[in-house]
Structure formats: structure tokens, C-alpha cells
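Reviewer comment 2.1 asked that we show a complete input and output for one of the modelled complexes. We chose the adenosine-5'-triphosphate case, as it is the one discussed in the main text.
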Amino acid sequence: MNAPLLQVKNLRVEFPTRRGTLVALDDVSFDIAAGEILGVVGESGAGKSLTGASIIGLLEPPGRIAGGEILLEGRRIDRLPHEEMRRIRGRKIGAIFQDPLTSLNPLYTVGRQLVETIQTHLPVGAAEARRRAIQLLKDTGIPAAEERIDHYPHQFSGGMRQRVVIALALAAEPKLIVADEPTTALDVSIQAQIIFLLKRLCKEKGAAVMLVTHDMGVIAETCDRVAVMYAGRVAEIGPVQDVIHAPAHPYTVGLMGSIPSMEDERERLTQIDGAMPRLTAIPPGCAFHPRCPHAFERCHRERPDLLDAGRTRAACWLHAARPSDVATAPAVFQPNALTDA
Ligand SMILES: Nc1ncnc2c1ncn2[C@@H]1O[C@H](COP(=O)(O)OP(=O)(O)OP(=O)(O)O)[C@@H](O)[C@H]1O
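Response of the prediction step:
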């Protein structure tokens, strides 16, 4: 069997501080298949952005990868020299951030930036690169692309700028796009358009996507699979329909309590009583146990790894219940089968 496009194995990210080491990502593992869209969801501070930054090699010091491996097409990329990682970032992995201006140089026309990216990574001449750049702008729905190509980033609206960033991310025909909250900074009325554009183009061009978002509605309408993160770990991962309609982790059940539609104001994921712990105060055992209505003795003591839980995998002892545990469990867990949103 071919290796998945991306493999993240037991990833651990730490921040050294004066008071000791903060473990921001702890044993994070997942794969992304070629052409697949994986959503990554979870409360603010769960570790979504750090996971994305680790994959694209842009983890900011003092944060560091302290353990685990990241493999692209079976090859390790987490220990590569700066220069080599930069080449991979252009050629194999594209990145889209919240603020389009992070990705664009204000001093150059968008055409120059597209043409440079294309020519850096693909063996094409200047005229062909410009032709491709115009086509990319057309693909992303920029009107009058032949003229707009010679405009500067500030001459575009926020939504149009993010379309340019999508064009730029796709310019070198990468295998994977890491998109971190790509629509959060945009007007609510155009968020859905940009998400659907991203999905359509990546499917057309065969690029896989890791889509980081707070928004379960976006995940539901966009992704093939979803990883739910909590306190620096993957709490649940599985096909999107299964995670949404039959979540196996009590945290996911809480998240699914409300799926806002993409047209609604973005809702923060605050359906569950209590708050996610700070990294300095992660409780022993399962990090979710203080908020969990189903927690039993083992959850206070032992940290669960991802376990088979029907059609998803969930880091929850309810799916490994031993007879002795069940005796102490306050309630039998019923995965919360939700009706269609
Ligand atoms: N420079 C830093 N120093 C110390 N801790 C950090 C630093 N950057 C991030 N962290 C810690 O890592 C945790 C995870 O951060 P991350 O940005 O990945 O969360 P997130 O899930 O993407 O949240 P958000 O949705 O708000 O972007 C944060 O809660 C924070 O405590």
C-alpha cells in the first residue's frame, strides 16, 4: 500500500519557559491521503495552528518540535535544513493564513509574485508563467484577470486578496495546502464563497488540504475527515459524517451541540460547561475529565490514546471500558446520534 501523502506521528511541541517546559502538542498523530480534505477543529488554544505551523516548517521559536515525526510522501520533513524546507513549502506544500497580507508582498504586483512562484518551482519560461498566472487568477474568480494581474495587493478587497493568496498557494501545483482559518479575517458574507472556492480548486487540482477552523459548519460542508483537538491532543478523528452524526468522544458530542450554518455569525465553541485547561494546568488522566459528564475513575488517572470507537477513533476510556471501570462509571455513554443539521 502507498504511504499516505502526509503522516504526522506522535508529534510533540514544547515551549521552554522560565518556569519549566510547556507541552503544547502531545502525541499528535494523523494522516492525510492524497487529495483528501482534513478538517482540524477545536477550541482556541487546542493546538490547531501549532500543528499546521509544524507541518509547514514555520513553528516560531522558542517553540520546537521535541518529539515525533512528520513525513511527506514517506519522507521525513521535520528535521530538514531551512533552505530545503523552504523549497518544499513552495513546491509541495502551499500555505494560506488568516490574513491574506501575511502571504503577499505589498511592494510587488500580484502578477510578479505569482510568476516568481511559478518560475521558482516549475520549469516554464516567463511568457508561459504569466499565462498560467492569469489562468490561476481566473480560476479563483478574479474578474478582468488580464488587467488585475498588474495590480498591487492593496488594490484588492479582502476577499479578492484571499483569492489571490489561494492562487499563489496553488501556483506551484503543491500536493498539500495547509489553510489556517483562511476566512476568519474576511467579511462574513464572503466566507462561504472563499471556502467553497478553496474546496473546488483543490479537488480539481488534486491537492490535499488541512483546514484549520473553529467552525464546525465549515467542516461539515467541506471536509472528508475531521480531527477534533483538545488541550494539545487529538480527541477524536474520523470521517466527517460519522464524527458529526455519531461522535464518540464526549467533547465532540459537546461541540456538535450547535453547528452554526456558514451564513451565521461565527460562533465560538463554548457549548460545554467549563473551559479548556491552560497548558500549565493540564489535569492528569484524560485532559477533558473535569468537564466530562461520563468521567469515571480511570479517566482521572490514565491518559487515553486514540481507540477504535465504531467508525471513528476517540481518545476516551469509554471505548475500552473494562468490567471494573464500568462498575464505577456514572452513566452508560450513548453516542449522541444527531439528526441532520
Ligand atoms: N510563543 C508561545 N509561547 C508559549 N506558548 C505558546 C506560544 N504559542 C502558542 N502557545 C501555546 O500553544 C497553545 C496552542 O496554540 P495554537 O495557536 O496552536 O492554538 P489554536 O488551537 O490554533 O488556537 P486558535 O484557534 O486561537 O488559533 C496555546 O494555548 C498557547 O498556550
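Residues 15, 22, 24, 42, 44-50, 63, 214, 279 surround adenosine-5'-triphosphate (CB under 6 Å). We note this here for comparison with the apo prediction described in Section 3.2.
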